[in-house]
Amino acid sequence: MHPYFNHIQLGYMGFIPFLLCIACTLMLGSSETLVGVFSYYSMGILAFMAGTLWRAGDQPKSHAVFAVATVIPFPLLSLLSPTLMLTYLAICFWVVLWTEKAMPKWQETHKDYKQMRFILTSVVFVSHLFMISQAIELTR
């Protein structure tokens, strides 16, 4: 068992609340509450992911700044429409992955972890697209 095994399991388990929000939306219909729960859970996960990239003294200053730049506007996100908030969050998940891939430690990372990060980022992105469609539906 490689040292990233627990990280991989936790990564997939972290997707469960996203999946539950989507399942509830499919079963119960669009709801501002579900869009909100999904959005704020997404913010929490994104903040966690960006925070894991913050390795003091372990990367150039530009990487450190970029790692947390995605979470700096979080207080303002609540002022945006749910559609804009979800769009911002969807893009930021890719930014965090690209930032992680740009770090020297990525080359040493186990291939299973790299695969998990790409799969989860892709699925989380598609989940955001689904919830964006639900947020748009609520405005009609």
Automatic annotation (TrEMBL):
Top-level taxonomic group: Bacteria
InterPro entries, A to Z: DUF3429
Protein name: DUF3429 domain-containing protein
Native species: Pseudoalteromonas luteoviolacea
The entry's keywords: Membrane, Transmembrane, Transmembrane helix
TM regions (residue ranges): 12-30, 37-56, 76-97, 118-136
